[in-house]
DNA sequence: GCACCGCTTCGGCAATCATCGAACTGTCGA
DNA sequence: TCGACAGTTCGATGATTGCCGAAGCGGTGC
């Protein structure tokens, strides 16, 4: 299986990364990956079709947020947290730590 | 002049904020504001029409990134950095500190 | 080889977005 | 009162996006 194209760390563009992270479904994917969860494409059950999921994976991959590694007939997804931190220090952490909903417990 | 609606800090939504920041024109606006530059709407010369600029201001305002204060026949724009930092700590700083283009000097 | 599996790619569709010119609103100064 | 000024709002338009089912494609295992 061909390795899909990934931008190098220096090719990352902030608007593209922010746009990739600005979709709730993609945000959920990123959070799952950050939790160290399993990372094949099929493990994401967001109520979306395979085609749509694949689309989101592509947006994340082409912006540099995520890496896709072919492994047999599966594809292993992983966060490019190292590259993101190098290029946009603190961004990923800020996005991930904003998990808490606007509820009261955010004040604790 | 009527004060336009601003979401409260608790109403901020991460995807909306990220989307607001994911447009190059809006990112430029935010950076100018962060530089402490003058802040009436008319001072932004991004090669866009008044109507388009006004649209971008609205996106920024409705997501919580920016505050608009009527002042005579002008409108003073300001970054809601305090509110953003409270709700999404580190996010704004990460976005702003990513100013440097993908050039070599980014490594310094 | 062949069927299955995991995922991508390909149209296509409806919704949203960025953009504009034109018309409008509210404010200030003459 | 009457412009000039600063912005907003109103259509309209073309581009992008999110979504899907169907078809395609490389790997695995029978």
Written account of the structure:
Two copies of one chain form a homodimer. Chain A has helices at 14-21, 24-34, 50-63, 81-87, 91-97; strands spanning 66-71, 74-79. With 108 residues, chain A is of the alpha+beta class. In chain A, strands 1-2 form a two-stranded antiparallel sheet. In chain A, strand 1 (66-71) and strand 2 form a beta hairpin. Chain A is globular, with a radius of gyration of 14 Å. The A-B interface holds A 10-16, 18-19, 21-24, 27, 87-91, 93-95, 97-98, 102, 106 and B 10-16, 18-19, 21-24, 27, 87-91, 93-95, 97-98, 102, 106. Chain A binds a DNA duplex (30 and 30 nucleotides) through helix 3.
Structural class of chain A: alpha+beta
Unreliable residue stretches of chain A: 103-108
Number of strands of chain A: 2
Number of helices of chain A: 5
Distance between the termini of chain A: 48 Å
Greatest interface (CB-CB under 8 A), with counts per chain: A-B, 26 and 26 residues
Tell me the fraction of residues in β-strands of chain A, as a range.
5-15%
| Multimerization status | homodimer
The helix content of chain A, as a percent range, equals 40-55%
The largest beta-sheet of chain A arranges its strands as: 1-2
In one word, what is the shape of chain A?
A: globular
Helix-strand pattern of chain A: HHHEEHH
Rg of chain A over CA atoms, rounded to whole Å, is 14 Å
Brief overview:
Chain A is an alpha+beta fold.
């Amino acid at each position: 299986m061909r390795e899909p194209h990934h931008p190098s760390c220096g090719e990352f563009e902030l608007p593209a990364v922010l746009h990739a992270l600005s979709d709730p479904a993609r945000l959920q994917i990123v959070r799952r990956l950050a939790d160290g969860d399993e990372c094949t494409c099929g493990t994401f059950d967001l109520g979306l079709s395979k085609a749509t999921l694949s689309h989101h994976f592509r947006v994340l991959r082409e912006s540099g947020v995520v890496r896709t590694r072919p492994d047999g007939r599966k594809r292993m997804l992983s966060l490019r947290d190292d590259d993101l931190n190098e290029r946009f220090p603190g961004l990923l952490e800020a996005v991930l730590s904003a998990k808490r909903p606007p509820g009261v417990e955010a004040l604790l």
